[in-house]
Amino acid sequence: MAEQNVITLMLDDLAQQQPIRTALSIGLNLTNDLSDLNIQFSHFNASVFLNLPFQQRYDLAVVRLNDLELQQFNPQQKTQLIVKLRDLWAKRIVVCAEVQDEKLMRALGFQQLFDYQLIEQQSVWLFNILDYKQVPDWLNAKYWANPENWNKYRW
Questions:
Q1: CA nearest 66: which of 93, 100, 98?
Q2: What does pLDDT average to in each consecutive run of 10 residues of the chain (155 residues)?
Q3: One Pfam family name from the record (predicted)?
Q4: 87 falls within a domain
Q5: How far apart, in whole angstroms, are the C-alpha atoms of residue 76 and residue 1?
Q6: How many angstroms separate the first and last alpha carbons of the chain?
């Protein structure tokens, strides 16, 4: 119950940053709880989702890795599910994961938003395709051609 309240508040904040029109959830059915946010939610069963062909890209995906069905997945299946969501299905992904999934989440490029380990031994992770990688300072047109050095140095 506390988890749904946390997710509801987080979705409110994410919607203020960037509009959310479509969303999907796996392991946590949010369609009834968030009907007032004007978000078109789709709920999928995890094993069914892994076999679905790509249909559309969603603005947001919410996954609860400690769902009864997902607890029976091996680490490779969990990784496959999250990577499929990250690469094809969603621009932003919110994952509620247990403490032992921390290495997996970091390896897949997720940022830890917060953890509430004292209550339920879980952490909340976010992947946003728009800011998952910080652009290095040197990666711009100023440093590539160096026309001011063309007749000064021999490369």
A1: 98
A2: 67 82 83 68 87 90 84 88 92 88 90 70 85 74 68 66
A3: DUF6231
A4: yes
A5: 28
A6: 64
3-state secondary structure of 142: helix
Sign of the Cα pseudo-torsion (58, 63, 67, 70, in order): positive
Q: pTM for this one?
A: 0.77
Q: Name the token pair of 84.
A: 């499929």
Per-residue confidence (pLDDT) for residue 80, from 0 to 100: 92
Q: What is the separation of C-alpha 49 from the centre of its chain, rounded to a whole number of angstroms?
A: 16
Q: Is residue 101 part of a domain?
A: yes
Q: Check residue 114 and give its pLDDT.
A: 76
Instruction: Kindly state the tokens that stand for 55.
Output: 């249909």
Give the pLDDT of residue 117: 59
In a domain, 50, yes or no: yes
CATH number of domain containing 30: 3.40.50.150
Q: What length does the chain have?
A: 155
Q: Which domain holds residue 142?
A: 2-149
Q: Which residues lie closer than 8 Å to 56 by C-beta, 6 or more apart?
A: 22
Which amino acid, 35? Answer: S
Q: Is residue 45 part of a domain?
A: yes
Q: What is the CA radius of gyration of the chain?
A: 19
